[in-house]
Amino acid sequence: MPQLVAAAVRQERSRYTESVLGSLHERGGWPALRETLIAWAEGGFSLLRAERLGVHRNTLLYRLDKIDQLSGQRGARAGGGDRALSGVSGDLLDTRPE
User: Fold this and answer.
1) pLDDT above 60 (res 4)
2) In the chain, what are the domain boundaries?
3) Helices (DSSP H) in the chain: which residue ranges?
4) Which of 6, 22, 49, 78 has a CA between 20 and 30 Å from the CA of residue 67?
């Protein structure tokens, strides 16, 4: 998925990222939420990834719910994880130094 997002023209990628994340990536606490999504995806969208983040399972659930609430998107926990990850990929690409 990250390769597909990276292949997109920057303007289109930015538009897509905004449609997925809303203003989530502009809010305080975004780095922790972004790391949560990345770790969760790397672990196959499993709640067992809470250990990798060094947080309790309920903290991971709270963060995923917060991501859903702030982004206005259908549940990251309810099957929207790969879409959320593609938004994170776009955000990482668009915020890296040129």
Assistant:
1) yes
2) 2-95
3) 2-7, 10-21, 30-42, 50-53, 57-71, 81-95
4) 6
